[in-house]
Amino acid sequence: MTMSRFAQRLSDHGLELTRGVTTTLQVNVGLACDLTCRHCHLGAGPWQTELMTSAVIEDVIACAARIPFACIDITGGAPELLPELPYLLSGLAERAPKLIVRSNLTALSLPGSAALPELYRDLKVSVVASLPAVNASQTESQRGSGAWDTAIRTLQKLNVLGYGLAGSGLELDLVSNPVGAFLPPGQAATEKRFRQELARRHDISFNRLFTFANVPLGRYLEWLESSGNLSVYREKLESCFNPSTLPGLMCRSLISVNWLGIIHDCDFNLAAGLQHGRAPLNISELHEVPSEGTPIPVGDHCFACTAGSGFT
Ligand code: SF4
User: Fold this and answer.
1) Which residues pair with 257 in a beta bridge?
2) How many CB atoms are closer than 10 A to CB 83?
3) Contact indicator for 120, 99 with CB cutoff of 8 Å
4) Which residues are registered as beta bridge partners of 29?
5) What atom in ligand 1 is closest to the CA of residue 296?
6) Cα(218)–Cα(43) distance, rounded to whole angstroms?
7) Among 138, 231, 254, 289, which residue has the least CB neighbours within 10 Å?
8) Shortest-distance atom of ligand 1 to CA 269
9) Could you give the domains of the chain?
10) How far is CA 76 from CA 10, 80, 152, 289, in A?
């Protein structure tokens, strides 16, 4: 098998990517989503029917009962489109000190999601909300018409419930990612700009903001190819390779389970079809976290995690 350029780069530096202490279970409940964001590394969308079944949901809850994860992190697609999301959250809330739901904010405003914000509050679920930019035009160029106003209304509703407010214990973090084929600006400056603009224009508060490079997989890879940006973007990522990001990479402390119950080392490897271990491992067979030092399979998409200050 040909070595990926990323694996070769690690080898050139005398490095390998292996697990540290695994503390987090990330649960990808499926590819169904109300949006078709250009940067999506999974190609999620309204036509996608992949959703975690009731049987796999039970396996996830059972796994969380036998393995003491410090954090369980629910993602998709849009997790709000999973009809059993309230059941899943209720089954996990007592199992881990921290329970996160990732939201695109628009799915949280759908009629079928009406009861979710209060449920999140009651279960003390942390919300990690993606918001590509701090203005309507850039956000909607990536997400489609109407996405900005809906996101703002949803953030305001979360604030009313206490999310993002000092002393509430209800965390509301934002994730911003570039709208084109370039790397994100510095996280601290971006967080400051979002905080000022969202407070001044919309009276919105949040806890922290994270900036991430887009990962060239799924729909984002298709866009890079169709727009002629792929080679430039890949060169940019590779030229910004920073070996000091390795110790903090999320794949060293997280395992990811997909909607079929199969374990991967991260959501990007899940999207790339790189499985954890030599044979597919189902969450129903997971009785302990992978050992420290277990090798992590890598591909060229890993350059997005290790460019500049990294994706941790
Ligand atoms: S994509 Fe990122 S998180 Fe996943 S294995 Fe590669 S470096 Fe680790």
Assistant:
1) 27, 263
2) 10
3) no
4) none
5) 5
6) 5
7) 231
8) 4
9) 28-215+247-299 (3.20.20.70)
10) 30, 9, 21, 22
User: 261-288: b or e for each residue (b if 16 or more CB lie within 10 Å)?
Assistant: bbbbbbbbbbbbebbbeeeebebeebee
Amino acid in position 115: A
Phi-psi region of 203 (alpha: psi -120 to 50; beta: other; left: phi over 0): left
What is the C-alpha separation between 215 and 300, in angstroms, rounded?
10
296 C-beta closer than 6 A to ligand 1 = yes
Confidence of residue 1 (pLDDT cuts 50, 70, 90): low
Model confidence pLDDT, tens digit, residues 114-165:
999 999 999 999 999 999 999 999 999 888 899 999 999 999 999 999 999 9
Residue 244 CB contacts under 8 Å (≥ 6 apart), including other chains: none
Residue 158: C-alpha distances to residues 2, 103, 151, 194 (Å): 48, 12, 11, 17
Question: What spacing in Å lies between the alpha carbon of 153 and ligand 1's midpoint?
Answer: 33
